[in-house]
Design brief:
Blueprint lengths: L1 H20 L3 H12 L4 H6 L7 H40 L25 H15 L3 E2 L5 E2 L1 H4 L25 E2 L5 H9 L4 E10 L11 E11 L4 H16 L5 E5 L5 E10 L16 E10 L1 H6 L8 E8 H9 L12 H4 L3
Parallel strand pairs: 1-4
Antiparallel strand pairs: 2-3, 4-5, 5-9, 6-7, 7-8, 8-9
The chain binds 3,4-dihydroxyphenylalanine.
Length: about 350
């Protein structure tokens, strides 16, 4: 029995040395394992209790309990010490000096780094301000639409190529992602009474092969006027005002005939390329002109689908490609930059 007790006492010295040497929490856990775990040293000693008298067992048991208590005490002290020294070294190596201005932000707005709106949003807001100052209201519509609002009510015949699966994302529930903001023309006609003037900025989706000038998700701003008398002259004036305001100078425009089912007559409005001033460059595909603003007079069938009498009401509409406009504005050569989420790009605006 005396042997067993001295064996336990020897363990105490061993354990104390092991704990003192432990460098981290993992090493401490290993020490516990080695001494009091299932296959630990103390367990080995206790297995020999069988051959002892009850009194002897009590004495050895007591020694074992003393050992365990001592072990716990040593472990707790060491654990505390490890935690403290970990924080002490963290404070040495990872302290935070709140008075230092990070170099990458020091150039920005007086040393304070603040986020800002996306370049597309910036131009959108500017256009909204211009149009609301001319009496337009800003209206919105759903991005997940039905065939009627995206096509049917806009005078797309059933076999119109734009209905083809290639251009449109369809959902399994028979809805689609709107391919243009012209849907909001219909939404506005349903909920507002003429005369009316609206713009509808928003996100649109096309099933496109993505490249430098095509995205599957992009932004448009629709505009529409409904009144008793609306002419191509009104439309042109509106377009010219819009572009002059956006670019901050007079821009040259030209109208070409263009076909859209929901306008008659329909036009493509081009503006003289601002990158090369009409001389021809890669942005204008060497033509000197850039297509920016499809527009036209609202087709009688669209008015009829909204319950308006074309003999009484007339309209003009346009569908501005916001991405392309912003590209012209800032000389951006690749449409994919807009959605890439790269700060290097965004911080320039
Ligand atoms: N919705 C057309 C498109 O995305 C653009 C458009 C053309 C809108 C003529 C109009 C318009 O309002 O009058 O291709």
């Amino acid at each position: 029995m005396a042997d067993l007790i001295s064996e336990i006492q020897a363990l105490e010295a061993e354990a104390a040395a092991a704990i003192a040497a432990a460098a981290d929490a993992e090493a401490l856990a290993q020490v516990t394992q080695n001494f009091t775990g299932k296959k630990g040293a103390l367990t080995g000693v206790m297995k020999q209790l069988g051959s002892l008298t009850p009194e002897e067992r009590t004495a050895v048991g007591k020694a074992a309990n003393t050992f365990k208590a001592k072990l716990d005490e040593l472990l707790a002290a060491k654990e505390k010490q490890l935690t403290e020294s970990k924080f002490a070294s963290l404070a040495e190596t990872e302290f935070l000096d709140l008075s230092v201005t990070p170099p990458e932000f020091s150039q920005v707005r007086g040393g304070v780094s603040s986020g800002h709106t996306h370049p597309i949003t910036q131009t959108q807001r500017r256009l909204e301000a211009i149009f609301t100052s001319m009496g337009f209201s800003i209206v919105d519509g759903p991005q997940v639409e039905d065939d009627y609002h995206n096509f049917g009510a806009l005078n797309f015949t059933d076999d119109h190529p734009a209905r083809d699966m290639q251009d449109t994302f369809y959902t399994v529930t028979g809805h689609l992602l709107r391919t243009h903001t012209s849907t909001v023309q219909i939404r506005a006609l349903e909920s507002m009474k003429p005369p009316l003037r609206i713009i509808a900025p928003g996100r649109v989706f096309r099933y496109e092969e993505v490249d430098a000038s095509h995205e599957h998700t992009f932004y448009q701003m629709e505009g529409m006027i409904i009144d008793r008398k609306v002419s191509v002259g009104n439309l042109l004036h509106l377009m010219q005002t819009l572009l002059t305001e956006v670019f901050g100078r007079e821009v040259d425009v030209r109208l070409r005939p263009g076909y859209f089912p929901f306008v008659e007559p329909g036009f493509e409005l081009d503006m003289k390329c601002l990158v090369c001033n009409g001389a021809g460059c890669s942005v204008c595909k060497h033509s000197g002109w850039v297509e920016v603003l499809p527009c036209g007079l609202v087709h009688p069938n669209v008015l009829r689908s909204a319950g308006l009498d074309p003999a009484e009401w007339q309209g003009a509409a346009f569908g501005l490609g916001l991405n392309r406009l912003v590209m012209m504005q800032h000389g951006i050569e690749d449409i994919r930059h807009f959605m890439a989420g790269k700060l290097e790009f965004l911080r320039q605006f």
